[in-house]
Design a protein that fits this description.
Structural class: mainly alpha
Keywords: Membrane, Transmembrane, Transmembrane helix
Oligomer: single chain
Order of helices and strands: HHH
Protein name: Integral membrane protein
């Protein structure tokens, strides 16, 4: 098992897996965002001139990709624990998890302005 104070955490294969995982999660979140935006555009208020004209569309565009990003961050932390138990370089996966949580926070923070307070 690696001593945490030694900082011997370099593992190119594990790093590539973590980066690939984060990119796939971001790609799936982008596809969900596009899918919910298309669904919202074909909704019942096409004549309104606004893409997100009802609460259901606003909520779907906000929480669809947000939940994908949140699940991806949780998945990265689960992999962190699995790699730690095997004695591998777990900080790589922890970094991926925190990155995905940060992107989730930004997305939900910026997108929260689309949902009305009513």
């Amino acid at each position: 098992m690696t001593n945490d104070a030694e900082k011997r955490w370099s593992d190119d294969g594990n790093f590539r897996r973590a980066v690939r995982y984060a990119l796939v999660v971001l790609g799936v979140a982008a596809l969900v965002c596009v899918g919910t935006a298309i669904w919202a555009a074909t909704g019942r208020c096409r004549d309104a001139g606004v893409l997100l004209c009802d609460t259901a569309a606003q909520t779907a565009v906000l929480f669809g990709p947000g939940l994908v990003l949140l699940a991806g961050g949780i998945g990265a932390f689960v992999e962190t624990i699995r790699v730690w138990r095997r004695g591998g370089p777990w900080p790589i996966w922890q970094g991926a998890g925190w990155f995905l949580f940060l992107i989730t926070l930004f997305y939900l923070g910026i997108g929260a302005s689309t949902v009305p307070a009513e």
